[in-house]
Design brief:
Elements lengths: L7 H8 L3 H8 L7 H13 L6 H8 L4 E6 L5 H17 L2 E6 L4 H13 L4 E4 L9 H8 L4 E4 L10 E4 L1 H14 L5 E5 L5 H16 L9 E3 L7 H12 L7 E4 L2 H13 L9 E5 L13 E4 L2 H17 L9 E4 L2 E3 L10
Parallel strand pairs: 1-2, 1-3, 3-4, 4-5, 5-11, 6-7, 6-8, 8-9, 9-10
Antiparallel strand pairs: 10-12
Length: 345
Amino acid sequence: MKFEAVTIKDIAKALGLSTSTVSRALRDSYEISPETKQAVLEYARQINYRPNPIALSLKEKRSRSIGVVVSEIANSFFSQAINGIESIAYTKGYHVIITQSLESYEREVMNMQFLSSRSVDGCLISVSSETNDFTHLSDLYQRGLPIVCFDRVVEDIACHKVSVDNVQGAYDATSHLIRSGFRRIAFVANAEVLSITRERQAGYRKALEDHGLSFDPSIVQYCTHGGMRLEEVETAVQGLLQQPLRPDAVFASSDKLTTNCMRYFRKEKIRVPEDMGVIGFSNLDLTDLLAPPLSVVRQPAYEMGRLAAELLIRVIESKKPETAFEKRVLPAELLVRESSLKGKR
């Protein structure tokens, strides 16, 4: 049996009123008597009446919904960011439609087309690792769709942006490894085109320079799919281990890269931290329960999601087009555990 939502017509029929009278009563119109309003509102509560969102969107020319595009919902960073987004959307009366690109440019384009065709009021996006052509975003933006970038930002679009201080986070992680006694520190990163990769590599290189160590491109590996494919990470780490002068530590620049490096070292019986120090960006809640506990750079993902949603809704509800845009950069937190402490086990 097909589900049919309760409508104004149902209320009107049950109470013996016209649909226009019920509609005005629900809108608290002065034209309707208090007694009639009370009867309509009471009956509407009894039958759990909710206004039709499609009809409302046609009337208000707004859908009260926002779209979100992330690489992977199962990623701990993005799941925490989505929680932050929804916390703001809920209090502001917006619904959230979540899509994932799975690090695919093609899927990202399709997601944006889907969301815009559903008349969302605006979009939050963290671009995929395959995306180096932003035409699909700039076209929608030029046509008036409000967009806010978070985490992996697009510099070419004049919009609000929310990110973490990737340079400082990477600098702190690399400096910690050096202070712990590691000297040949490899860098395992996402795709080169991503803003987070460029910024985290800049922090990594600055830390090496400030501590008198040279940058060696032979111990830098890029993973286009950001750790979503274990075999890609294994190939990257194997490439590092086959170097004539093997690294003694790895700095991994994202969540799944970090945990998949640990997974590979365990499989190959490479001891952490005795044989290989490890530190990485990760928001996984269980990193302290790994053996050994994993040192990480933790991002304020929930706060990033909240802030991105606040900025987007501000643009949506602004009576005038915004011309001044903010780039909010939040601090990361270095959590030092056994995986990066040389000779501690």
